[in-house]
Amino acid sequence: MESVARPFLFLCFALFLLSSPCRSDPDPLQDFCVANPQTSDVTVNGFPCKPTSSIVSDDFFSTALSKAGSTDNIFSSNVTAADVLSFPGLNTLGLSMNRVDIAPGGVNPPHTHPRATQLGLVLHGQVLVGIISTSNVFYSKILNAGESFVIPRGLVHFEYNMGKEAALEITAFNSQLPGVLIAPRTLFGSMPGIPSEVLAKTFQVDQQVVNLIKSKFGN
Ligand SMILES: *[C@@H]1O[C@H](CO)[C@@H](O)[C@H](O)[C@H]1NC(C)=O
Q: 99 CA to middle of ligand 1, Å?
């Protein structure tokens, strides 16, 4: 009996250890918990729930992704999020979705999602998707409508519209709020800004070059 139980327990423990880094948001403890951030100042890992008695059908539906975002900006792209902030019904359910509209020649610039793996589907257009691993290897592919891609959690990636038409992709995340760090904004557009001498040393250029780039990102 014991000789069977021991390897079994070891296997369970090994599976637990292997699975824990892959886990994203914690599992819910009830059917749903529609977010009601206004009702409480209490901070929890997520948002407090609306009382079940006031849940309505509309809590489970959203028009957040129904319209293209304006691509009239420096990157010629726009990310529209259906995450827990725009769609409170997602609270505690561990997933969310974005639409990414990219004009020809536009880019969703290099960025990472610290809390989620991403699964993307190109619906229109021709998109170059690039991923950089922690070993600094660049992986990329040009995707057409109907083709999909996966961005492992936390890796830097971008999407660039190679085509002549507007591109649209839908991305799903295993987090209700995947978070995003957009590399150029993080480095050159933080408030307050990172000292220019730090960035000059980092990028091996003069501070004027750093200041020029900062000026593009509101600093
Ligand atoms: C994205 O599109 C929305 C809706 O058109 C707009 O309000 C927002 O300013 C756009 N964001 C950027 C960065 O252009």
A: 12
- Does residue 173 sit in helix, strand or coil? strand
205 & 135 share domain: no
* Ligand 1 pocket member 78 (CB < 6 A): yes
Task: Verify that 207 and 106 share a domain, yes or no.
Answer: no
pLDDT digits (tens, 9 = 90+) for 104-151: 999 999 999 999 999 999 999 999 999 999 999 999 999 999 999 999
Q: What are phi and psi of 20, to 5 degrees?
A: -65, -40
Q: Specify whether 108 is located in the same domain as 212.
A: no
**46: DSSP letter:** B
pTM above 0.70, yes or no: yes
Domain with 205 in it: 189-219
| Of 81 and 5, more confident | 81
Q: Rounded distance, CA 22 to CA 217, Å? A: 34
Same domain for 29 and 66, yes or no, is yes
Q: Is the CB of 63 under 6 A from ligand 1?
A: no
Residue 86 resides in a domain:
yes
CA of residue 66 to ligand 1 center, whole Å: 14
